Amino acid sequence: MKNQAAEGNIIYIHMNHTARYILSSGIQFSDFMKGIPVKPSNLLLLKHQFEDGYYNMHTRLNFITSENVEQLLEDDVFRYEEFCWVDFSDEEELNELTGQELAEFLYLSHIKSPLRPPFYRMLGNQFFYLAEGDGIFNKTYYKKWEHFFAMIGVVISNRMSPGRERTLFGRRKYRPVPFIPADIIQILGGQMKEGIVFSFDKVTGDRLKMEVPIWIVGDFIDRDEMYEEYLQLSRHAPNARLVLDRKAGEWQALLE
User: Fold this and answer.
1) Domain of life, per the record (predicted)?
2) Predicted confidence (pLDDT) at residue 207 exceeds the cutoff of 50
3) Are 168 and 178 in contact (CB under 8 A)?
């Protein structure tokens, strides 16, 4: 991205509802894992540079369990350049994969486009995570859209600066921003199909409310081009807003 100072100040989302994937920029693996409501039990690592974990003889691929996910989270997955994985329930399921299924995994991790819908009965996978430079542009497949809506609600709340209040004795304390419910995020589903940016450097607020502006920018596969379009469009009024009533602790999605 050309403007490195803007790193982390926006989140781009483009939803392909039919193919069940999200193109995103500004959401890293750690964000995904913190926000996803159903944590993956195990990850079959298709492209990575993680040095720990386990080795499966049948697939000849490394995998990690819930026991060493924290190690992976602490690693700098951005340096991997490519980071691709699919979740699964039990190692025995890996040993039942056919050569065709394994070939489809490898094809998807390389081309970033599936030969068929990437959800496998044998694995029971909920996700397929594909990144070239984690957080720059990710392509993530979701079996259930409610998992995505819940995740992005947590990520946006975590990205915002916590509100500060003065106590009776003059000290300042931080009040965490409440998570945005999935049904509120889902209201923006139509805009997400066009491609939107949540802007955090343009958040406004006072003691009563806080607003996150949203612009429809279109469908992009290049982060620099997307960001340039956002810079142009953000000179005008936003297309939607997420509004927090700070007293009630409740969120609204308002479409312009």
Assistant:
1) Bacteria
2) yes
3) no
In the block, tokens 């915002």 appear at 160
Please tell me whether residue 10 adopts helix, strand or coil conformation: strand
What backbone phi and psi angles, to 5 degrees, belong to 13? Answer: -135, 125
Contacts of 249 (CB under 8 A, 6+ apart): 178
Closest to 139 (Cα-Cα) out of 14, 46, 41:
14
Length of the chain (residues):
256
CB-count exposure of residue 253 (10 Å: 0-12, 13-18, 19+):
buried
2 to 6, 10, 29, 198, 233: CA distances (angstroms): 9, 14, 22, 18, 17
Residue in this structure with the two tokens 């999200």, named with its chain if needed: 22
> For residue 174, which phi and psi values (nearest 5 degrees)?
-95, 135
Q: For residues 242 and 180, is the Cβ–Cβ distance under 8 A?
A: yes
Express each pLDDT in 114-137 by its tens digit.
999 999 998 999 999 999 999 999
Torsion, Cα 223 229 234 237, to 10 degrees, reads: -130
